[in-house]
């Protein structure tokens, strides 16, 4: 089924999923390059601060958040596994703080310029 610029029913909503990849800032160029090479060029990137299981950086008893970068991609559900593998393989250093990948369903996508619904 083509989910391009056409309306779709709520039953079709799970055809789209969103990846939120929280990764080390120094791995962004490698990850984005690997994704682009495999045809995943549409994404949003933003820099954030946060902490995971390691609870950030502790200095003199104070805990500080770590800089991270979030990559956000919305894809057809059938391409999620491929994109997740690319992100894991290219973001992994093997050290604590490599990041997390979250995959969530997308209910709708609207193009602001045209008002069309769908990918």
Unreliable runs, pLDDT <50, ≥5 residues? 1-11
Order of helices and strands: EHEEEEHE
Strand content: 25-35%
Give, in spatial order, the strands making up the sheet with the most strands: 2-5-1-6
The helicity comes to 10-25%
Helix count, DSSP H or I runs of 4 or more residues: 2
Average residue pLDDT: 87
Structural class: alpha+beta
The largest sheet is: 4 strands, antiparallel
For the CA atoms, what is the radius of gyration?
A: 17 Å
Number of strands: 6
Quote the distance from N terminus to C terminus. Answer: 12 Å
Describe, in plain words, how this protein is organized in 3D:
The chain has 2 helices and 6 strands. The chain is an alpha+beta fold. The strands form 2 sheets. A 4-stranded antiparallel beta sheet has the order 2-5-1-6, with helices on one face. Strands 3-4 form a two-stranded antiparallel sheet. Helix content is 18%, strand content 33%. β3 and β4 form a beta hairpin. The chain is globular.
Please outline what is shown here.
The protein is an alpha+beta fold and 119 residues long.
List keywords for this structure.
33% strand, globular, 2 helices, disordered N terminus, alpha+beta, 119 residues, four-stranded antiparallel sheet, two-stranded antiparallel ribbon
List the SSEs and their pairings.
Elements: E1 16-23, H1 28-37, E2 44-50, E3 57-59, E4 62-64, E5 66-76, H2 80-91, E6 99-105
Antiparallel strand pairs: 1-5, 1-6, 2-5, 3-4
């Amino acid at each position: 089924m083509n989910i391009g610029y056409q309306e779709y029913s709520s039953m079709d909503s799970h055809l789209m999923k969103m990846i939120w990849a929280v990764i080390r800032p120094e791995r962004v160029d490698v990850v984005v390059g690997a994704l682009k090479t495999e045809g995943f060029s549409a994404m949003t990137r933003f820099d954030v601060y946060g902490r995971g299981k390691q609870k950030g950086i502790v200095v003199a008893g104070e805990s500080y958040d770590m800089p991270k970068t979030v990559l956000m991609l919305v894809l057809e559900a059938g391409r999620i596994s491929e994109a997740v593998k690319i992100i894991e393989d290219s973001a992994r250093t093997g050290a604590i703080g490599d990041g997390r990948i979250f995959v969530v369903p997308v209910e709708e996508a609207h193009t602001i310029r045209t008002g069309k619904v769908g990918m």
